[in-house]
Design brief:
Layout lengths: L1 H35 L36 H29 L12 H19 L6 H23 L1 H44 L8 H34 L7 E5 L4 E9 L3 E2 L2 E2 L2 E5 L10 H9 L5 E5 L16 H14 L6 E6 L2 H11 L4 E7 L13 H13 L4 H9 L4 H5 L8 H28 L5 E7 H6 L1 H10 L5 E8 L10 H18 L7 E3 L1
Parallel strand pairs: 5-6, 5-7, 7-8, 8-9, 9-10, 10-11
Antiparallel strand pairs: 1-2, 2-6, 3-4
Helix pairs in contact: 2-3, 2-5, 3-5, 3-6, 4-5, 4-6, 8-9, 9-13, 10-13
């Protein structure tokens, strides 16, 4: 009985303990409910400890990273191809950049090379905007890019329908414009499909398309729209420049364009007068070589005046590669290559010696090389304020080359040409061979080519030419008095060039004449007088060696 009562007592104690624990737990739950029932304060958690990835209705939150157009294979496909097109365009851009300085086989175009480079740069810009702002499609971007595409299609029509531009730019320029137009269309289509994919995924995962944009998205749309708007301005300028080039292509030229250097490019050559004979001997033909500007703007008018006065019976003039109506030559291009182009053009046109070479400035380098390679046909040299080979470093400085390259890069925009045509009444003549010819990409490319090899290839060629120059060739040197007074080194080099041959007819320093001596009456008068003496000597007459100031 004792053990029975003891067992009953233990059970009773156990029941009391369980009851007490249950009371404590109930009290804790009531305390917890009381805590959560309180108004939230600074210590209250704002989010649950284990938030559910889905709302109570089974949809995701619109800000969830899983809500992305990249869920669609079509959108991923477009991005992969956009990046691929960007890589291809960049490689093409690098190749075009290199071809400005060294022309790869089959890549030479008769134009400057800056044209296709500019359109490829625009293509890269469009693709970069598309890649960077790929997930932020916007109607404004589609509209601006569509405007770019339409204008590029107009450019494509111009380059294909204007024979002169089509010939100058060749397949490289045509391919660059067509590629730019296709990429612009691709960017419009891509942005539209991404916008569709974004809306589709939002409807599928969140239950409705998202109409809000975050601040980051609005900034992305703003930046992309500004960039594409800038591209519109750029392509409008390039299209206007193309229109001016199409207008200039209608300008008639005297003479003909002759293919040289394996038909890679053409040079312009024209001849005035007829072949005459004196005492049964053929009179020499005067070959004019321009200085730093196209010859038609330089001193061709002086030669025509000499022809009308009867001082000369016939003369020919031509445009060096890149000047006036002549195409650009492949890079690199030296003065010796220019002399060979002149030789080939004269041969193809049926021109034969004897010749008297009249040249100015940097053009005297080409004439001297030409003379050394045609000693039997050249019966006289007239150098007008010539550039000495020891001074070639003045036009070959890296800073000048970089400046020329920079001007060339922006030349397709045609800002100066457009401003001159609209506000100053510049004509086709001004732009093709006149005072504004320096604004064209072809001219800038020719200047850049001269700069790149002036103190290397060209200098070696003219030094070699001096060593083999015939000592019997009659020589006239006419120097600028202003240049000689302001540049003592220039004066010393003029004196040295007066010793180029042993048959000096005259060395004159025209007192008040600038570097372009023919711009003064005294300069023109002196030039015509000395040219007449050279013709007389070439025909077997006597010439008196003289030096005057």
């Amino acid at each position: 009985m004792v053990s029975l009562w003891g067992s009953t007592k233990d059970d009773q104690n156990s029941d009391d303990t369980i009851t007490a624990l249950q009371d404590d737990r109930s009290s804790a739950r009531r305390s917890t409910r009381s805590y959560h029932a309180r108004d939230p304060d600074e210590r209250t958690r704002l989010l649950p400890r284990n938030p559910s990835p889905q709302r109570s209705d089974g949809y995701l939150d619109p800000d969830d990273p899983a809500v992305s157009p990249y869920n669609l294979w079509s959108v991923r496909f477009l991005r992969y191809f956009t990046v691929l097109f960007l890589i291809i365009s960049f490689l093409w851009w690098v190749l075009l950049l290199v071809s400005i300085f060294v022309s790869p086989p089959g890549m030479h175009s008769r134009g400057s090379g800056f044209f296709d480079f500019a359109y490829t740069s625009l293509t890269i810009g469009n693709l970069l905007v598309a890649v960077i702002f790929f997930t932020a499609p916007a109607k404004a971007m589609r509209i601006t890019t569509a405007i770019i595409a339409v204008i590029l299609l107009v450019d494509m029509i111009i380059i294909l329908t204007v024979p002169r531009i089509r010939l100058e730019e060749g397949w490289v320029g045509i391919a660059s414009v067509v590629w730019a137009a296709l990429i612009a269309i691709w960017c419009v289509v891509t942005d539209r499909i991404v916008a569709w994919g974004k809306r589709e995924e939002e409807e599928r995962l969140t239950g409705r398309p998202e109409t809000r944009r975050t601040l980051k998205e609005w900034l992305a749309v703003l930046v992309a729209t500004i960039l594409t708007s800038v591209f519109i301005v750029i392509v409008l300028l390039m299209t206007s420049t193309l229109g001016i080039r199409a207008r200039d292509a209608t300008l008639k030229m005297y003479g003909e364009r002759i293919l040289v250097d394996g038909d890679k490019y053409a040079v312009h050559l024209a001849c005035i007068g007829s072949i005459t004979y004196t005492d049964g001997k053929k009179d020499p033909t005067i070959i004019l070589e321009a200085g730093e500007e196209p010859l038609e703007y330089d001193f061709e008018h002086w030669a025509y005046s000499s022809y009308q006065n009867g001082t000369i019976s016939r003369y020919c003039y031509w445009d060096r590669p890149g000047y006036a109506w002549s195409d650009n030559a492949p890079s690199p291009h030296s003065a010796g290559m220019t002399a060979d182009a002149l030789s080939e053009a004269l041969a193809k046109s049926g021109e034969e010696g004897p010749w008297i070479l009249v040249s100015a400035g940097i053009g005297t380098i080409t004439s001297r090389i030409f003379s050394s390679r045609h000693m039997k046909q050249v019966t006289g040299l007239m150098l007008i304020d010539p550039l000495h080979e020891d001074l070639l470093h003045r036009i070959s400085s890296p800073s000048r080359g970089f400046l020329l390259w920079g001007w060339g890069i922006i030349s397709p925009l045609g800002i100066e040409r457009l401003g001159g045509a609209i506000f100053k009444g510049r004509t086709r003549e001004d732009r093709v061979y006149g005072r504004n010819a320096y604004q064209s990409g072809k001219y800038i490319k020719a200047q850049l080519q001269e700069n790149l090899v002036a103190d290397s290839l060209t200098k070696n060629e003219v030094v070699s030419a001096r060593n083999i120059q015939s000592a019997d060739t009659p020589l006239v040197v006419i120097s600028s008095g202003i240049k000689c007074r302001t540049d003592s080194e220039w004066e010393r080099k003029q004196k040295d060039l007066a010793n180029l041959t042993d048959n000096l007819v005259a060395w004159d320093v025209v007192n008040k004449a600038p570097h372009q001596i023919w711009q003064t009456y005294e300069g023109r008068k002196m030039m015509e007088q000395r040219l007449g003496e050279l013709v007389k000597v070439a025909n077997g007459g006597e010439g008196n060696s003289s030096m005057s100031n």
